[in-house]
Structures are given as C-alpha cells and as structure tokens.
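G., the chain you wanted modeled:
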Amino acid sequence: MTGLRDDFLWGASTSPHQVEGNNLNADWWALENAPGSPLPDRSGDAVDSYHRYPEDMRLLADAGLNAYRFGFEWARIEPTDGEFSRAERDHYRRMVDTAHELGLAPVVTLQHFTLPRWFAESGGWRRPDAADRFARYIEFVSPALRDVDWVCTINEPNMLAVFANLQETVLSAMGGQDADAPEAGQAATELATALAHVRPDQALGDTLAQVHRRAVEVVRATTNAKAGWTVAQQSFTPTPGNEEVFERVHRVWEGFYLDVARDDDFLGVQAYTSQPVDANGPVPHPDHPDNSLTGWAFRPDALGISLRRAWDEAGGIPLLVTENGLATDDDTRRIAYTDEALGHLEAAVADGVDVRGYLHWSALDNYEWGRYAPTFGLISVDRETFVRTPRPSLAWLGARARRDGLR
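Predicted structure as tokens:
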C-alpha cells in the first residue's frame, strides 16, 4: 500500500504563455520580440493550446489522469488598464468546463510569470497599488472559478524575485542592440552568467507576500476554492561546516516563502533538482552525462527533500506537488526519474506528510522561457503541424494513477 489518499490528484501542468501562443499583450512577449533580445527563441504560436486544449485534456484523461493544472492569462483578460474581456474570461471558463467533463480536477493558476504590458511597464509588482490591481483582476475572473477546488495565486514568487534582480542585467545585456548584431550572442552569454549568481530580491519578496495575502482573501471571499501559492524549492543541502551559510541561502531562496504560506489552505511544491551549499553559497551543477537538458543534476530525491521541508516550515498545511519533472529527450530517463521521485513522495506520506496530489511538469513540450529545446512533456508536439504524440511516460503515469500509485 502507498498510503495515498483516495482522492489523490494525479495529473500534469502547463502555464498559459508557454503553451497557448500569441500572448501579444504580455510583458514576456515584449521581451522576446524586443531588438537585441537575449532570448534565443520567441514563443510565437507556442503549441497552440489556446485552441487545442480539448485535445490536450482528453489525452491526459484517456491516459488515466484525473487532474490538470493550467492558468488564466491576466494579459489576455485585462489587455489594457481597466478594460476587461468577458470573452477571454468565458474562454477560460470553457477550459474549466472541459476539464470537469473529462473527469479532470482543474487546478488554476492566476499568475504564472507573465504580466500585462501596461502593468509591467508602469512598475509591475512594485506599483504601490499592485495588490489592488491584482485583486481587481481576481474579482473579475472569480465567476469562472465557481466550481474550482484549487487556486494558485502566484506561481513561484521566489523566481519572480530572482527575475527582478536579473532584469537590469538583461536590459544591460540587450543594450538596445539589433537582434542580428554580433553583440547579440554576447548578450546571451552575459545572461547565462548572471543567472548563475543572481539571488531573489527580498524587498520584492516582501511585496509579493502582501499581494498574495490580499489575493487569498479575494479568492476565499468570492469562491469556494482552496487558495495558496507555489514555491520553487531548490532542495539545497549543506556541505560539512557550512550549515550557517545554508540557513541564510535557504531563507532567502525559499524559507521566507514557505513561512508566508502558513496561513494558506495549501502549498504548491515545485521541485526538480538539488544543489549543495558550500562556504560561497549554492554550488553550480557540474557537467555530467546524467544532467538534464536544462543542465540540472539528475536528483529525483529533490522531491522528498522539498516535501519534508515544506511540511515542517509551512506549518503542516496540505501540500500539492504542482511541478516535478525532467527535461530530457530520452523518455526512459523521464520514467526512471518520475518513478524514483514518486517513491520519495510516498515515503514522505508514510512519515505523515499530507500530500494531496502529484502534477507532473509538464503535460506538453512547451516554451521554456526563451527556449524550445528543453523537452519536459509527457506529450511531444510538432510545432510545424501541432500534432500531439503521447510519449510512453504518459501511459506509464496514467497506469500508476489507476493503481493508486502502486508500482
């Protein structure tokens, strides 16, 4: 027996900008298409899930899964300040209806990295009225959430805080260059170097905590859903003699955000890999043939580390794995990774950790924030024809779900 709940959610996740395509009014679209952008790929049509979501959901349901995490795109719903689209709200309501019709529990994310351009260009989360503007958006979409049980307010606020510290470096690297200029390649190199050393902006983290608390109040007041946010857990581990450095690093990267979740209805756990912390901080992933296509170490045990840490530090609130997976072009490796990760999840449950579900990242190969090369999907997508091809890992995970997790 695995000890998993009878109502355990087995599913997969996506985010709107990464799969829908042509999110023209989003800040990321502007960054991708700016002259001198350091991002190697543009999202473009993405994988056209905006139109093909019924097929995507049916593939998950037919495989045996019972949940799907997807997002409402704020930039589509409020493309200009104060102008809300009822048609777009209806579109996302149709997604909720489709999920229910197929037996998939909808898990809805209200903000997954992207922002409306008008909001971002006028200060974004640093605007003094940011919490009010986000609350106004949630109030507008709340009728579409009337029978949704799980709502994630903000996806990975700690990574939003990282992006904030990275923004000046990105803009400096772009330098207003033409995208075809020789300096554009150097811009990408500078961006990669910056990523290796950046850390979350704590001031923005404090602001996001306030925005989140307001958002939770609105969700609770206007829907019957459980409300929480998702945290990108780094699963850091201390090296001998560097426990104090580890505590400082952990606090800034994730501990603060786990504490904020203590008053929530659940916490979304997102874990992919683990890194040791030495006297200088997080140790970069060394090159290794087992590394994923994102360069991360093959560490399925990261999920167990993160679940136990979240359980302890978020005060014992229910946990929902909202992202876990491997960027690989070898599906046997994806299955091996997921199988081991689920073993660590089941061990945590056996030790009393309240885990309500496992949502794999990702349902589809998608736009990984600047690149299409890292393939995380249980379903591959031909981006020329948009033909979906389920990988063996989808059938494997669906069979695991039908057996309630039993191997």
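The longest strand covers residues 226-232.

Shout if anything looks off.
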